[in-house]
Design brief:
Blueprint (H helix, E strand, L loop, with lengths): L1 E3 L2 E5 L2 H6 L1 H13 L12 H12 L8 E8 L2 E9 L9 E9 L8 H15 L4 E7 L4 H7 L3 E11 L6 E10 L4
Parallel strand pairs: 5-6
Antiparallel strand pairs: 1-2, 2-3, 3-4, 4-5, 6-8, 7-8
Length: 181
């Protein structure tokens, strides 16, 4: 798909998820431990991260309702992002971006931006004209999403529990209108 210097981004089918399960679980675990707002709380074990990929991602790949892109750099999985396009019949134009993950060792190198650009390209190829996502308000991903053209639709207070405490954080819901491919 995309290749910039030593970075490659590719679509991962179920067999690749299975082959790289431990590394993908390590990516998720590292991001959760680094404070990423991706729906998990600490402590978060490698086994729990493997269970997420096995139970929430793998079953959705064969039917095509979910696309997983993986970024590799320096021989390692550096990041991933998901596009959930299994939408209700009255929303065939929309898809949700989920679980943008960049390993802490690879942050601040533009990998998140490249993953966002590539997942947007995939959405356009699929005929989707509206992307949505949510993030913890004030999270380090929020400025990235805004710089990628996402607009704030609204903020819900007390939406999700902080990964490190019993505090409930607000969530910012965002959207981006796309041009049809």
């Amino acid at each position: 798909m995309a290749n910039t210097q030593s970075l490659t981004i590719e679509r991962f089918p179920a067999r690749d998820i299975e082959t790289h399960l431990t590394e993908l679980a390590g990516l998720l675990q590292a991001c959760v431990e680094d404070g990423a707002s991706v729906n998990f709380v600490l402590p978060y074990t490698l086994e729990e991260a493997k269970a997420f990929w096995r139970s929430k991602v793998l079953p959705r790949l064969p039917d095509g309702g979910l696309v997983v892109l993986v970024a590799r750099s320096e021989g390692r999985i550096a990041g991933s992002v998901q596009l959930d396009h299994d939408t209700p019949p009255n929303q065939p134009h929309r898809a949700d971006i989920k679980k943008l993950l960049v390993h802490p060792d690879f942050q601040r190198r533009g990998i998140g931006r490249k993953l966002m650009g590539e997942i947007e390209r995939v959405a356009v190829e699929m005929g989707r004209t509206l992307l949505t996502l949510d993030t913890r308000t004030g999270d380090k991903g929020e400025p990235l999403y805004k710089s990628c053209g996402f607009e704030v639709a609204g903020i819900i207070p007390g939406y999700s529990r902080d990964a490190r405490s019993d505090h409930y954080d607000p969530a910012t819901f965002m959207y981006k209108a796309l041009r049809a491919g």
